[in-house]
Amino acid sequence: MPESRRRPAHRPSRRNQLIEGAIDLFAVKPPDLVTISEIVRHVDMTPAAFYYHFSSRDELFLEVVNQFGDSWATCAEEWWGAADGIEEVVDVAGRLIDEAITRRAHATVFFVTSKGVSVSVEESRRSFTARAASAATDALRRCAPESTPEGAAVDAVALITVLESALRAELSLDPAYRTLGPRRFRDEVTRLCGQVLEARADT
Questions:
Q1: Would the pLDDT of 86 be above 80?
Q2: 3-54 maps to which CATH number?
Q3: Alpha-carbon span 112 to 173, nearest angstrom
Q4: Cα–Cα distances in angstroms (integers) from residue 20 to residues 13, 59, 63, 64, 138, in the given order
Q5: Which end of the chain is more exposed for a tag (fewer CB within 10 A), N or C?
Q6: What CATH number does domain 59-201 carry, 3.40.50, 1.10.357, 2.50.20, 1.25.40?
């Protein structure tokens, strides 16, 4: 039986193969420089197979952003939802960094190369950031009941900002990251997360 019949283009695995192959390219090049021809060559498919699943490169790129963003936000919701105490809230911040780094290419697309790509991508990124911030807010209100709802929300946004900035620095090998090295950089990020919450407690 011909290969095209054994492996129909509409198989979910073929769609996933396109997504994973595109991530390899989007993680190292600006998305507007990645062509559909490159993507299909990279995964050994035809343009017809690509267009069966996606109408454009932009649609595929948004799917990549959405997949990682949803996964990362879900981790934030689950882990902060189980946090019991401020120390655990800070620990979750570290776990979220680790989760992103274990999926380096995916995280690089989400935190680095997708920034400012398009209005739809930015809206998607903001929605996942908002989910993570909401989870952090709930955790802070639960673990620090003396905090006002507004104060918990401000702390949560500050915490997410630190996390995202740290991830962009690590994933893009920012000079600050290369100067400190992985261990010291992570220690500094954890310390900064703790200081964000301590500052509110002292007010």
A1: yes
A2: 1.10.10
A3: 11
A4: 10, 14, 11, 8, 33
A5: N
A6: 1.10.357
